[in-house]
Amino acid sequence: MNKFENTFFKKYIPEWENIISVIHTHIITILDKVIIWLSFWAFLPSFLFFQSERIKEMLLFFIFEIYLIGIFCKIIYDIFDWYNDVLIVTDYWII
């Protein structure tokens, strides 16, 4: 366990307990979400936007960029949500 996890998750346990381990869920649980969001909601619309003149005429570039920034924020939110979903093993119990 690194020092960051020890100090970050220390606020969730009482002062007299020691953190033995911090257990995250497996990385596969977040990778499938990230890959799906990137492939279907970012890469595919980007490809269609830059390849089709008709879509470029209907949709302004800055609106499309705001859409992509929203997708980026959603992916970052999912990653932070995955990182904070932990089991904290202490001297007395698992939180």
Brief write-up:
This protein has 95 residues and is mostly helical. It has four helices and two strands. It has helices at 3-9, 28-51, 53-58, 61-84, and strands spanning 19-24, 86-90.
Structure description:
The chain is mainly alpha-helical and 95 residues long. Helix content is 64%, strand content 12%. A two-stranded antiparallel ribbon has the order 1-2. Helix 2 runs antiparallel to helix 4 (61-84). The radius of gyration is 20 Å and the shape is elongated. It starts with a helix and ends in a 5-residue tail after the last strand. The mean pLDDT is 90.
DSSP summary: helix tally = 4
Helix/strand order, N-terminal first:
HEHHHE
The computed structural class is mainly alpha
Q: For the record, give the distance between the C-alpha atoms at the N and C termini, rounded to a whole number.
A: 16 Å
**Strand percent estimate:** 5-15%
Indicate the percent of residues in helices: 55-70%
Give the CA-based shape.
elongated
Whole-angstrom Rg: 20 Å
Q: What quaternary form is this? A: single chain
Total number of beta strands: 2
Low-pLDDT stretches = none
Mean pLDDT: 90
Task: Characterize the biggest β-sheet.
Answer: 2 strands, antiparallel
Order of strands across the main sheet: 1-2
